[in-house]
Amino acid sequence: MRITIQQASPAQCQTKPADESKLVFGCSFSDHMFLMDFRSGQGWHDARVVPYQNLCLNPAAMVLHYGQGIFEGMKAYRTKDNHIHLYRPRKNFERMNRSAQRLCMPTMDVEDQLTILETLLRSDHEWIPKTRGSSLYIRPTMIASEPHIGVRPAKEYIYFIITGPVGAYYAEGFNPISIYVSDEFVRAVRGGVGEAKTMGNYAASLYAAEVAKHKGFTQVLWLDGVERRFIEEVGTMNIFFRTNDELLTPPLTGSILPGITRDSVITLAKHWGLNVQERPIDIQECIASIQSGAMLEIFGSGTAAVISPVGSISYKDTIYTVQDGGVGELSRKLHDEITGIQYGEKEDVFGWVHEVRI
Ligand SMILES: *Cc1c(COP(=O)(O)O)cnc(C)c1O
Q1: Whose CA is nearest to atom 10 of ligand 1?
Q2: Is the CB of 259 under 6 A from ligand 1?
Q3: Which of 236, 235, 223 is nearest to 316 (CA)?
Q4: 238 lines ligand 1 (CB under 6 A)
């Protein structure tokens, strides 16, 4: 695959945040971006690294009307001895292809996607922060660009990758979240697009998240779309429950996003000898287990926070605190293990780290 590189001129360069400890998620972007076009009959073409810039879109671009848009979220980490690591990057690109298929969009060769990302990172490696816990957030995105009014799969697409430095998620230590069970709104239904990382899912989640915030809670706990009874996800994270003898998480039945952190948690927990079960979890069962003290800890998993401990759950106007509302033992252990692997400090037993040669 041929990738042309157009170096950003000094005037085209982005302002780099001076203080790595004050990085705000999603607010600053690196000097370069990757762009590539697709046309049916021609396939992917014109792969290029260019200065970070606005896109030029026809107002009839189909993504703006019919929502054919998908993305991924991943990070590049700088180790203490200055190596650059990606974490299970092929998993992101395989998932991008599954999202593409679900939305009738073109797929891309996984190895080509990895080559593209490595090329972009070589142009912007100085943007990967040095502070432990900080990283370069990477957002691969594909949108339907064909100008056309009328519902059908588009014939033209743009694939782009933007990146930007982000600070340590827990700069001030682990912070348990309070979650609000939405029994009115749902995120996704089985048979829908919940398992695809597609833009509309996030638009669909905003209203419930605003309601939760207004009531003073950090995130929404989503229940299944049919019975509003079985737990699905927390905010934009997968969810885990630990009792005395089990680590539980809902099964991937179509409405849940198959998280790579979720897969890492399951793999590590099994490796440590825990009894991991993927089965439906009734919200009533969860509440009863918190009340009896059998629930030891609850946590969310995702690329941004890695592990996010849940301190309390609000359901039908009652707040249930998990144990003492603090950080569970397994939450801490998983967080330390996964970040340790990402930053090259812990043994990478499963071969999850992909080193980028700059
Ligand atoms: C991205 C995402 C996750 C977490 O996936 P990771 O691969 O672990 O980052 C979970 N739920 C939703 C809805 C997501 O968008």
Answers
A1: 237
A2: yes
A3: 223
A4: yes
Looking at the CA of residue 233, tell me the nearest atom of ligand 1. 11
pLDDT in tens, 50-91: 999 999 999 999 999 999 999 999 999 999 999 999 999 999
Question: Residue 318 domain-assigned?
Answer: yes
Residues 143 and 156: beta-carbon distance below 8 Å: no
Please identify, by atom number, the ligand 1 atom nearest to the C-alpha of residue 194: 13
C-beta 302 within 6 A of ligand 1: yes
303 pocket-lining for ligand 1 (C-beta < 6 Å): yes
Report helix, strand and coil shares of the chain as percent, to nearest 5: 25, 30, 45
Tally of domains in the chain: 2
Ligand 1, from 303, 306, 339, 352: best to mutate by most atoms within 8 Å of Cβ?
A: 303
Cβ–Cβ contacts within 10 Å for residue 284, how many? 10
The pTM (predicted TM-score) of the whole model is 0.97
Residue 237 CB–ligand 1 contact under 6 Å: yes
Does residue 27 sit in the same domain as residue 130? Answer: yes
Indicate the Cα dihedral angle 74, 82, 113, 92, nearest 10°.
Answer: -30
For residue 264, the ligand 1 atom closest to its alpha carbon is 8
CATH number at residue 269: 3.20.10.10
- CB-CB contact of 358 with 122 (8 Å): yes
The mean per-residue pLDDT over the stretch 265-270 comes to 98
pLDDT digits (tens, 9 = 90+) for 158-192: 999 999 999 988 777 788 999 999 999 999 999 99
The residue segments making up the domain with residue 89 are: 4-166
